[in-house]
UniProtKB/TrEMBL annotation:
SUPFAM superfamilies: Cellulose docking domain, dockering, Serpins
GO cellular component terms, A-Z: extracellular space
Signal peptide range in chain numbering: 1-22
Gene Ontology molecular-function annotations: hydrolase activity; serine-type endopeptidase inhibitor activity
Protein's name according to its UniProt entry: CBM10 domain-containing protein
Record's keyword terms, sorted: Hydrolase, Repeat, Signal
Family from the record: Belongs to the serpin family.
Every CBM10 domain range: 24-60, 82-118, 122-157
Organism whose genome encodes this protein: Neocallimastix californiae
Pfam families per record: CBM_10, Serpin
Length: 517
């Protein structure tokens, strides 16, 4: 569009810092008219700019806005937050039902006419300009970062990065409650499901979420196991010839049988040693499939690394609401220890017993305690994780300028259950706006399908160790110097984050928040 071409010219002149001659309307010398109004939409080294009749125009710089050089002050222009479609000759929608999306933005239909849906998400563009699809090169910065694609300006979206995404999930789904979920289990279940989808928006969004890891190659350890199963109906006809490699996960039962859910729940209980005994999904004659992942971990604390003991006196804990509660705590005192620190939080690694055939445990726990002026949703967890993010993040600094590390936190347990359904806020939270189940390869089973995702998580942490399980279904260190010991107290007496990290597969098995005890 012409307006994109104008933006490129503006960018060139901005970079070259072309001067403006005072006795003329500066924009005329650049091939653009003077504005009749004085509404400033854009400012660079050249001057102030507005838009009239869909084209850029220059706004004369006067103290009283009474005009200049024989030209009157501007009378009309479009406001900066107008929706993009008005520049293309279409009105703004009054509602927000999206029927079509292209590079310009999101579209709906009202009064039998296409209309534009005003952007509410910073990653949907700005002031009528679309989000960049591929480029990340920043050519101009104001309140947003701008790049150029297809001869036009576009907004470089600041998408939720890895850490904020996970803590955002905790904040949005958990609120002020204790909450935990399993990114690893969710990703594995979605990978199972994705293998059966035809190309389309649903498949694309799932791959954007889970990345290119081959989750189906994840391994078990002696203390943890990953089990995948695809439940199908023995009374229905399927054709799995296009996904032969997935047949090993298939398990057929009579979905309409009265005991179908019992069979499924008994399997879950068996895999998790009775830790989780049921899931909320029901089987019936309408059930086409149930893609299931089970992640289970049970580990004892490594007494050489952290000799946990129980403290039966009441442990004061300041809840998310600022109230003081009391609980039984667990903790340890350790010489030659260390903790991790950055500007936002401190963290400590808690280790489990090592595997007999490995030199490390299947999991470790990282407890992250935000500074008192920070909330859980503010925290970037990456600097505290063992994963190598190369140049993406600055690792937290290791602190060992003390003789002993005294650590204490409350015992805790959590059970959570949550769902993702098409069109819900949970689907948008995970950026699965096209998740519906409708992209199942019709060669496998030709039917109209509505799908949902569910996850059940249970975690218990005490002085002995930690047990954690998740079931996801897609249905449809220091050297002592001073004589007086220096002791660093790491006391989790306010809301904190914990991560159960899967060392075997380099992934986040579970992430949770403790808000109250």
């Amino acid at each position: 569009m012409r307006i994109f071409e104008i933006h490129i010219v503006l960018g060139i002149f901005f970079l070259q810092s072309i001067s403006v001659i005072a006795d003329t309307c500066f924009s005329e010398r650049l091939g653009y008219p003077c504005c009749k109004d004085n509404k400033v939409l854009y400012t660079n080294d050249i001057g102030n700019w507005g838009i009239e009749n869909g084209n850029w125009c220059g706004i004369k710089d006067t103290d009283e806005c009474q005009g200049r050089d024989g030209y009157p002050p501007c009378q009309e222009t479009k406001i900066a937050d107008t929706c993009f479609s008005e520049r293309l000759g279409y009105p703004c929608c009054k509602g927000n039902e999206v029927l079509y999306t292209d590079n310009d933005g999101k579209w709906g239909v009202e009064n039998d006419e296409w209309c534009g849906i005003k952007d509410t998400d910073e990653c949907q563009g700005r002031d009528g300009y679309p989000p960049c699809q591929e480029t990340t090169e920043v050519l101009y910065t104001d309140d947003s970062e701008w790049g150029v694609e297809n001869d036009g300006w576009c907004v470089i979206c600041k998408k939720e990065s890895f850490p904020y995404f996970y803590t955002k999930i905790l904040s949005k789904l958990g609120g002020k409650k204790n909450f935990a979920y399993s990114p690893e289990s969710l990703n594995i279940a979605l990978k199972l499901y994705e293998e059966f989808l035809v190309d389309g928006e649903e498949k694309k969004e799932i791959l954007n979420l889970i990345g290119n890891k081959n989750y189906l190659d994840y391994k078990n350890s002696l203390s943890s196991k990953i089990v995948n199963r695809i439940w199908i109906d023995s009374k229905k006809k399927y054709d799995f010839s296009s996904v032969v490699k997935m047949e090993k996960y298939l398990y057929a039962i009579d979905m309409s049988a009265d005991n179908a859910k019992e069979i499924k729940d008994a399997y879950v209980s068996e895999v998790t040693d009775g830790f989780i005994t049921s899931t909320p999904t029901e089987f019936s004659s309408k059930t086409i499939y149930d893609f299931m992942n089970i992640l289970y971990f049970k580990g004892k604390w490594n007494k050489d690394a952290n000799n946990f003991r129980i403290k039966n006196i009441f442990f004061p804990f300041k809840t998310i609401d600022g109230k003081e509660s009391h609980a039984t705590s667990i903790g340890f005192t350790k010489k030659n220890g260390y903790y991790l620190k950055n500007d936002d939080a401190i963290a400590v690694n808690l280790y489990y017993e090592k595997e007999e055939i490995e030199n490390y445990a299947g999991f470790q726990m990282i407890v992250i305690l935000p500074n008192e002026d920070k909330s859980i949703s503010d925290i970037d967890i990456r600097p505290f994780l063992p994963y190598d993010y190369e140049d993406e993040v600055t690792p937290a600094k290791l602190k060992n300028n003390f003789d002993e590390l005294y650590f204490e936190m409350p015992k805790f347990s959590v059970e959570t259950e949550w769902f993702i359904k098409s069109g819900t806020k949970e689907a948008s939270l995970f950026e699965l706006d096209h998740f519906s189940g409708g992209s199942l390869n019709r060669n496998i089973y030709n039917a109209s399908i509505s799908a949902e995702i569910s996850q059940v998580v249970r975690i218990e942490c005490d002085e002995k160790g930690t047990t954690a399980a998740a079931v996801t279904e897609v249905h449809g260190s220091a050297k002592a110097l001073p004589k007086t010991p220096i002791i660093f107290n790491f006391i989790c007496n306010r809301p904190f984050i914990y991560v159960l990290y899967d060392n075997v597969n380099d992934d986040i098995g579970f992430v949770g928040q403790v808000m109250t005890v």
